[in-house]
Amino acid sequence: MASEKLLMTADDVRRALVRIAHQIVERNRGTDGLVLMGLLRRGVPLAQRIADAIKTFEGVDVPVGGLDINLYRDDLTSRPQPLVRPTQLPVPIAGKTIVLVDDVLYTGRTVRAALDALVDLGRAHQVQLAVLVDRGHRELPIRADYVGKNVPTSLTEEIQVRVREIDQREEVVLVDHERRVLA
Amino acid sequence: MTTRPILIRNVRILDVGDAFDQVGDLLLRDGHVASRGGHVSPSDAIVIDGTSLVATPGFIDFHAHLREPGFEDKETIATGAAAGARGGFTTLCAMPNTNPAIDNGTVVDFVLQRAREAGPVRVLAVGAVTIGRAGKVLTDMEELAGAGVVAFTDDGAPVADARMMRNALLYAADLGLPVVDHCEDYTLTKGTGIHDGWVASRLGLAGYPSAGEESLVARDIALAGMTGGWFHAAHLSTAGGAELVRRAKQRGLRVTAEVTPHHLTMTEEWVLGHQGRHARGPLTAAAYDTHAKVSPPLRAIDDRAAMVEALKDGTIDSIATDHAPHTWSDKTMPFDDANVGLSVLETAFGSLMALVHGGELPLETLIRKLTVGPAAMLGPRHAGLATLRPGTPADVVLFDPNEEWVVDTARFASKGKNTPLRGATLKGRVRLTIAQGQIVHDGMQPETLKKVARS
Amino acid sequence: MTTPQAAAPAITSLAPRRQVLDLDDFTREEIDLVLGTTESMREVLGRSIKKVPSLRGKIIMTLFLEPSTRTRVSFEQAGKILSADVINLSGSGSSAEKGESLLNTGLTLQAMHADLIVMRHKDSGAPYLLARHLKHAGIVNAGDGRHAHPSQALLDLYTMRRHLGSLEGRKVVIIGDVAHSRVARSNIFGLSAAGARVVLCGPPTLLPLELLRGRDTAYPTANVSVETDLDKAIDGADVVMALRIQTERMEGGATPSMREYTRRWQVTEARMRKARPNALLMHPGPMNEGIELASSLAHGDAQRIEEQVTNGVATRMALLYLLLNGPEASA
């Protein structure tokens, strides 16, 4: 069996998201024109958490959407086919500041696909990126504007972000597949 | 050309027409049977060991499409005769749906000339009922009979017009010959290529109902009764058609009938592919198997059983192949566009033996329907073909009833590779065919199952 | 309205399937996957920029050897929205000689690196011929003779599920020339697999004879019955589907007259009142107005027609996406 190492508890996740919420508002000097677009699937609940946090300290409802990027992937023939889900757009994005929210930033290819998907949905004023975990190993010139936690990893390792809405529990773990192979 | 005598030693000599069934030696000399039974040892003979084999009179096919003249890309009289030889047939009756049709003496002469050139397998001609088989003008039947035809038919097509059939029966009766009708009511069967049963509705194909055959069989029986003519039902395929013939015979009418090997062994399910073994699940890419497209179509399971029964009780007189060779492209088409017919001569015996091995048909009955039955159609001019009595023509087939072999269409002598049996394992194989005293097919070296299966 | 997506499908790919020839070999999971993906594709169709790159570099050839506009355009649009290169070929395919060239045409298209051939042919089973002989190109049957029209049936299933949710136990009446309809045939198999009760209604000459006579049949008789009286058939129906009547069939003597047909089998407002309230009325098109449906019904609902067209494109996008993506598709 693969070994799992706990990286973030539910509380750690909450604190990181609250911090990101503050950074987003600070960086954009308020919430005007702000839209949070979670990348399906786990980016969506994370974006909702950030919006909830902003509501508590700014008293403003920031629109939250869900972006499905599977029709934009460049790796569909080399991995199991993901289920395509509908993108949910709360408001037209033209002229808005879009914060893409995802659970893990790795090669950057998902974000690249998200940027392409976003372009097809309208001309945003600005696009920013928030991730809960940045594990390195970028293959494209992409960096996050907001990071919950930086985790140096090896290529045999995998970061799993679990959120209550989908996984019935909330935590971030490091899974090492190398050991599983050797075991 | 003089040929050496042929001695088949220690063979089961099965001459059902002459009620002769003994193990012994069969000696053929000067194109005739010299002796049968006992033990002989002539000095100059070619000796063949017949141990565990069966010798019977050469098979007679009353219904083969040899395609020449006009469709030589499908078959020629020479390749058809060679295919017949491989299948144990020493007499073939060539159907007249050629181009030009066999509708005058000149074409008969041509066919018979080609047949002589092809070798000792006896090829007889069947003449058309109407000029060009167009159903409009009666052929000069007397001229055709004089040239040697053994019957009349527009096969491939029915004699659709009842009055034309009436007239044909009267003329043919006068000449002592049968009118062979392809019983198909076009008004019911137009645009169809499959039996009107569950497979047709499964595949969304227009179905050829049994009534499409039965109605013309009934009409022709009525006309035979009215004219006193001889009606022979070609390739009977339905339980209802067989019942009509049965009753006509009981009434003493001059009615005979034949059935094909495929209607005795295959059913509509074969169109689903997988040689009839496809269950009622989803279709596979093998569905719409044009190699199982034939007219009349392969029928329902009950029809097949009824055909076997009718063969046994004498309702059906003979087995005829309806050998219908086609080119690859004739069959490599959407089902509705593909040509009808199977290449049968080389698989007929092997496939029919399944009826014997399966206990449905005694071997003696099978041989009778391949020899005595069709011989009765040919008249006194061709007497002695269905027996091994000394003095009769040396037309002999030697077969191993138990040898298994795999149908490899690449080895067919026929140009037509169109059979749904490709790759099938058949039990019962023709080992040697002798026509008019000459070996026309020598398969004495067993084509071992392994060797064929691997290729 | 219910979203077909509601329950997550158990599978995420149609692989290793390369062909969609009929729905008879689709598992329930596969149908759920296609319908779920259709829902996602509808979202793409709702955007102002109707283009996603997922089939970039894929070549789809449509080979329509029987006249058809809407199905071909629907596939073409679906392919183009997914960024595939779509090349359209057509021809009459009317003569038997065309049949032989069908295989040659297919081989040629394959040699031109077609990843998928979407074909329509007048002959039942024509796509099976290509499926037997083409080793690389995939095949989607866009209608073959009177046999099958799987993408139409998927579209109809999708529309029905959007309106009704589960089809289990629902009564669907299919009216008209059932015996010669590939739409009816594919729907009968798809619907009965989904647990619906299907009643086939029309002139006795245009219903499957073996069903009418209770003989051995290929139809799933547990779920399928026949009824020549439309007033009885439509009673309590959840879905009423009227098929297009081929006028040639009338002239061929299958029914006495168009007048007789409309009197006995036209779906009218009065007859619709015998169906369930809010029963779904469908027509696979193209419609003979005032024949299969009373004009008041035919013109009543432009929105419904629009929805069917949108659903048609989305269904075909889902099929193309699911067939041309995934690990096996690149092999």
List keywords for this structure.
heterotrimer, B: 455 residues, alpha/beta, TIM Barrel, eight-stranded mixed beta sheet, five-stranded parallel beta sheet, 30% helix, globular, disordered C terminus, C: 331 residues, Rossmann fold, 2 domains, 13 helices, disordered N terminus
Explain what you see:
The complex is a heterotrimer of chains A (183), B (455) and C (331). Chain A is α/β, with parallel strands linked by helices and 183 residues long. Chain A has a single domain, classed as Rossmann fold. Chain A is built from five helices and eight strands; from the N terminus they run βαβαββαβββαβα. Chain A has helices at 10-27, 43-58, 109-121, 164-167, 177-182; strands at residues 3-8, 34-39, 64-67, 97-105, 126-134, 146-150, 157-162, 171-176. In chain A, strand 4 (97-105), helix 3 and strand 5 form a beta-alpha-beta unit. Chain B is an alpha/beta fold and 455 residues long. Chain B has a single domain (57-382), classed as TIM Barrel (Alpha-Beta Barrel). In chain B, the strands form four sheets. In chain B, strands 1, 2, 3, 4, 5, 16, 17 and 18 form an eight-stranded mixed sheet that branches. Chain B has a five-stranded parallel sheet with strand order 9-10-13-14-15. In chain B, helix 2 links the parallel strand 7 (89-94) and strand 8 (122-125). Chain C is of the alpha/beta class and 331 residues long. Chain C folds into two domains: 19-148 and 310-325, Rossmann fold; 150-303, Rossmann fold. The radius of gyration of chain C is 20 Å and the shape is globular. In chain C, 53% of the residues are buried. Classes of the chains: A alpha/beta (183), B alpha/beta (455), C alpha/beta (331).
